[in-house]
Design brief:
A hairpin with a 2-residue loop joins strand 1 and strand 2. The longest helix is centred in the first third of the chain and has 29 residues. Helix 4 packs antiparallel against helix 5. Among the domains are: 92 residues, no CATH class; 61 residues, no CATH class. Helices cover 77% and strands 5% of the residues. It starts with a helix and ends with a helix. The protein has 248 residues and is mainly alpha-helical.
């Protein structure tokens, strides 16, 4: 059906062109002293159309030629972004799989790739959050390997890069990880300090309440631990039976 419609359209165009060009008494005369050129009106219009198409194609070719460097920069940036995303996925998968050294190396590769993008004059809209996440993954891997020096180094860098205006959620995550690491180090006071630095809304989240509950028990603060148990039961983090048992 579509082929038949195309064929009918071609016939209609052919008939229209034949009627238009078959009987045309118009003439265009061009004077170029001492010469004179007489052209039929149809030929003149055809030449104008051909000149317009040729000029349009030439301008598009010139624009594409001028835009080659920009396209090359965009292509290089896309390749680096893909490499960054691949390294970030490797870091996450290795960390979840318990391959902490590989996870740390992959996270450090993310940092180096993002730095190469910045050195090239380009910038990623999510650069600060990406750096913070990469350093946090490296710090988590170092914590799992009980390398506190390397953990603190990457943690400080993650916290510094999470100070951007659009990185509030990232900053909350870094502080929560710091509180969890402090609990693993049996330092309840330090864990409380990190939890107290969090905004009020973030400190009321279930994960923050759980950490505060553990820190209160570790620091031998029964009243605070009872309050956290009540809030956790209210937030359905504990069942009613488990909440009453923990409180008792």
């Amino acid at each position: 059906m579509r082929a038949a419609l195309w064929l009918m359209g071609l016939f209609a165009v052919a008939v229209t062109v034949a009627l238009f060009t078959g009987n045309d008494p118009g003439t265009v005369t061009l004077y170029w002293p001492p010469h004179r050129v007489d052209l039929s009106l149809n030929l003149f219009l055809l030449l104008i159309a051909l000149a317009f198409v040729t000029l349009h194609l030439a301008l598009r070719t010139l624009t594409a030629f001028i835009g080659i460097p920009q396209q090359a920069r965009r292509w290089r940036l896309q390749q680096r972004e893909r490499a960054i995303q691949s390294a970030l996925l490797d870091a996450l998968s290795h960390l979840m799989g318990g391959r902490y050294i590989r996870a740390r190396k992959a996270a450090e590769l993310v940092v180096s790739l993002e730095a190469s993008v910045a050195h090239s004059g380009e910038s990623l809209a999510y650069a600060e959050r990406l750096r913070s996440l990469a350093h946090l993954l490296a710090a988590e891997s170092a914590h799992s390997l009980q390398d506190r020096v390397l953990r603190e180094k990457h943690f400080r860098l993650a916290l510094d890069h999470a100070q951007a205006r659009d990185a509030q959620e990232m900053r909350d995550g870094v502080q929560l990880r710091a509180a969890r690491w402090a609990l693993d180090d049996r330092d309840a006071a330090k864990a409380m300090e990190w939890l107290d630095l969090m905004p009020q809304g973030a400190s009321r989240r279930t994960v923050a309440l759980r950490l505060r509950f553990k820190a209160a028990r570790m620091a031998a603060r029964p009243l605070q631990a009872l309050e956290m148990a009540r809030l956790l039961t209210k937030h359905r983090a504990f069942s009613e039976v488990a909440g009453k048992s923990i409180a008792r």
